[in-house]
From TrEMBL:
Pfam families xrefs: HTH_IclR
Domain IclR-ED positions: 66-285
Region (Disordered): 275-296
Official protein name in the record: IclR family transcriptional regulator
SUPFAM superfamilies in the record: GAF domain-like, Winged helix' DNA-binding domain
Every HTH iclR-type domain range: 4-65
PROSITE patterns in UniProt: HTH_ICLR, ICLR_ED
PANTHER family: HELIX-TURN-HELIX TRANSCRIPTIONAL REGULATOR, ICLR FAMILY, HTH-TYPE TRANSCRIPTIONAL REGULATOR RV1719
UniProt entry keywords in alphabetical sequence: DNA-binding, Transcription, Transcription regulation
GO molecular function, one term: DNA binding
One GO term of the biological process aspect: negative regulation of DNA-templated transcription
Length: 296
């Protein structure tokens, strides 16, 4: 009997196959996750038994139909705002950069929809990517979260407190790259992109993302954001509210530009706020279609 592989390896294999729709061989799985062949074979065998993966006649493994029940349960539990894909695509086209929608939990943020547009936001982020809930992640919803959650969030970076006032005043927050590190942004983005191809380097990828966040997420004050100066701009975020009036999601755009004038900055803010309001007004997508779905 094959011994059960560690949970982390099982998760890594599922995530790897999810990003490889054409399928992967045992050797490819082993190479990309830095596993020996026997371990990769054991993991795939464990996943094949319940139908979570399927081995084709070409000996390539893909995700299997056994995951459909899991996917349906997730869709019912994690309900996206209605028309989220449409709103994100329209926003990306209007602002000319990538857009992302994330679900903000108590201790982590999970990206639930991403529209790359002409760029990527943030670099290396895709649907399902998880980030620990510490500044700047989740900033857009924090002014309206319970005091205990807000205090826990600020404990990681007390200097982030002023950004909450900016969000309350404008409905958005904006960040700039650190002045002495702007040239590192494209380098780190390229590194994250390369690490996306090697899921076995998840720990290193997380460390690079932390560094990317550290140098690209210095929040603007209210006075800076409304000034007439031309400013560098990495990304902006706004809260999205559920049907019960709770701030549950964060909508981001990522211009990643070194110089943005006041007029363009105003346009970014206006477009982001309008999209966030559309998502909030739409409410969550019903877990079941048709008039019988009811309400919460």
């Amino acid at each position: 009997m094959v011994a059960s592989p560690p949970t982390e390896r099982v998760v890594a294999v599922v995530e790897l196959l999810a990003a490889a729709p054409r399928g992967l061989s045992v050797s490819e799985v082993a190479a990309r996750l830095d596993l020996n062949r026997s371990t990769a074979t054991a993991v795939l065998a464990a996943l094949e038994a319940p139908g979570w993966v399927l081995r084709g006649p070409d000996r390539l493994y893909t995700l299997g139909a056994g995951l459909l029940a899991v996917a349906d349960a997730v869709r019912a539990r994690v309900r996206l705002p209605a028309a989220a894909a449409e709103v994100l695509a329209e926003l990306a086209a209007r602002v000319g950069c990538g857009v992302a929608l994330s679900l903000v939990g108590v201790d982590q943020l999970v990206f639930v929809a991403v529209e790359p547009g002409p760029g990527r936001v943030p670099a290396g982020i895709g649907v399902g990517t998880r980030l620990p809930l510490r500044p700047p992640a989740g900033a857009a919803v924090m002014p309206w979260r319970p005091a205990a959650e807000r205090a826990a969030w600020l404990a990681h970076a007390p200097e982030s407190a002023p950004v909450l006032d900016t969000i309350r005043a404008h409905g958005v927050a904006a960040w700039r790259p650190r002045r002495d590190s702007a040239e590192l942004l494209p380098v780190l983005r390229d590194v994250v992109g390369l690490l996306d191809e090697h899921p076995g380097r998840a720990e290193l990828r997380a460390r690079v993302l932390d560094q990317l966040a550290a140098i690209s997420a210095h929040a603007y004050t209210d006075a800076e954001l409304t000034s007439d100066r031309t400013l560098p701009l990495s990304h902006l975020a706004a809260p999205v509210w559920d049907s019960r009036g709770r701030p549950t999601h964060e909508l981001q755009i990522g211009p990643l530009r070194s110089a943005v004038g006041p007029s363009e900055r105003h346009d970014y803010i206006t477009e982001l706020r309008a999209a966030a309001q559309r998502l909030s007004a739409a409410g969550p997508t019903p877990s079941r279609p048709g008039p019988a779905s009811g309400s919460d």
